[in-house]
Design goal:
Helix content is about 0%, strand content about 40%. It contains no helices and 22 strands. A hairpin with an 8-residue loop joins strand 19 and strand 20. Among the domains are: about 35 residues, no CATH class; about 55 residues, Tumor Necrosis Factor Receptor, subunit A, domain 2 (Ribbon); about 45 residues, Tumor Necrosis Factor Receptor, subunit A, domain 2, CATH 2.10.50.10; about 35 residues, no CATH class. The chain has a two-stranded antiparallel sheet with strand order 1-2. It has a two-stranded antiparallel sheet with strand order 3-4. Strands 5-6 form a two-stranded antiparallel sheet. It is mainly β and about 240 residues long.
């Protein structure tokens, strides 16, 4: 008759000292300092604890115990490049901007996240274990710069009731540009966009149009001299016949 040995795996934090036989059970030893066992095992050696100091950009987040490995995280000024089992295995220093460049990162908690590019907004912030994610701007919204915002800006509405019309339509990376309707001039300009317009002045009878209104200036009127006349629409006064 064949002998059957039943191997019993013992609890975490320990290792096998001697295997069982038909006459005795397995005996175990606790893991040595600097080692751990996070699962029931039949091994005679525990796993070595991860050393966060082997990578210059890492530090200890959670120390190694007999039942769990060390968890590493990036040092201040570094970001994680390789994540495994919720711990960081490799980190890299944040890039420094050159003269003439501007920072495209934002801080959330203790993390510096790359901003989302123009035409998008932040969906989820970065953590030590994942990069930030972005969403494209919805229709009717835009983002014209790198951003940490979670919503894009609403496109400007060129209101005909305010004397405005569309000069350049809104895109995901640029706002609408408005201009005055024919017969109106702009009273308020912001970032090359007309924000408010007013109808050109009408000259009164006895006056003539001395300077025709444009998209940026109002009409100018002048009085006719004696012996001349205008119904207010002439560009010069006419002599009486």
């Amino acid at each position: 008759m064949h002998e059957i040995k039943l191997l019993i795996f013992f609890s975490t934090g320990s290792r096998v000292k001697t295997d069982c036989t038909e006459f005795r059970s397995t005996s175990c030893l606790p893991c040595l300092e600097g080692t751990y066992m996070n699962q029931p095992t039949g091994l005679k050696d525990c796993f070595p604890c991860t050393n966060c100091n082997t990578d210059p950009g890492l530090k200890i987040k959670t120390s190694c115990t007999s039942t769990s490995d060390t968890v590493c995280e990036p040092l201040e000024g570094f970001y994680c490049m390789d994540v495994k089992d919720k711990g960081c295995e490799a980190a890299q220093r944040h890039r420094h901007c050159e003269p003439g460049q501007y920072i495209t990162e934002y801080q959330t908690g203790n993390e510096c996240c790359p901003m989302c590019p123009p035409g998008s907004c932040v969906k989820t912030n970065c953590t030590e274990f994942r990069s930030r994610s972005c969403l494209p701007c919805l229709e009717g919204t835009y983002m014209n710069q790198p951003t940490e915002r979670t919503q894009c800006f609403p496109c400007t509405n060129c209101d005909a009731g305010s004397g405005l019309k569309i000069k350049t339509s809104c895109t995901s990376t640029s706002d609408t540009v408005c201009e005055p309707l024919e017969g109106f001039y702009c009273m308020d300009v912001k970032d090359k966009c007309c924000m408010a317009a007013q109808r050109h002045k009408h000259c009164e009878p006895g006056q003539y149009i001395s300077k025709k209104g444009t998209a940026s200036t109002d009409t100018e009127c002048s009085d006719c001299t004696d012996g001349t006349f205008s119904n207010g629409t002439f560009t010069s006064c006419q002599p009486h016949t």
